[in-house]
Amino acid sequence: MKIILLVFLFFTLSLFGSDFITPKEYAKMLYENPRGISCKKCHGSDGSEQILGYYINKGVKTAYKIPSIQNIGFKEFKNSLTETKSSKSIMPNYSLTDEEIISLYNYIKLKEKK
Ligand code: HEC
């Protein structure tokens, strides 16, 4: 019985599959799990400034901050995702397509308004 239900579910999903995920859901999925390394882990759920941790710099406790990725222009956003990162940067290099970058950018813009 369970199997029949599953088959039915797959059938309906494949029929209407394209309607089950909105562009916003797609973008959320990308942001939270692109190529296995989530943007969210470092940039938080909305891309605002984050403190990843603390380290001791010359005896002073210093916060390791990740800059906000809200309020940046599309060009800048795209550049930081396409340029090869400096070896100092902890941000991984992703090879995202233009569509994926646009989708991610719009997602952050939506988060910004709240
Ligand atoms: C391991 C942590 C980490 C992950 C994962 C990560 N980032 Fe970053 N990101 C950083 C850090 C740190 C910076 C600050 C600049 C630098 O060190 O390169 C940064 C910078 C940026 C910038 C440029 C901000 C500016 O002001 O120039 C953008 C845009 C950005 N990240 C977007 C993303 C997106 C989108 C993802 C997911 C596809 C992502 N990042 C994943 C750590 C991360």
TrEMBL record:
GO MF, one example: heme binding
Keyword Amino-acid biosynthesis found: no
Keyword match Signal: no
Organism: Campylobacter estrildidarum
Record-annotated Cytochrome c domain positions: 30-109
Entry-linked Gene3D superfamilies: Cytochrome c-like domain
TM region positions: none
InterPro entries linked: Cyt_c-like_dom (IPR009056), Cyt_c-like_dom_sf (IPR036909)
Pfam families per record: Cytochrom_C
Protein name: Cytochrome c domain-containing protein
UniProt keyword terms in alphabetical order: Heme, Iron, Metal-binding
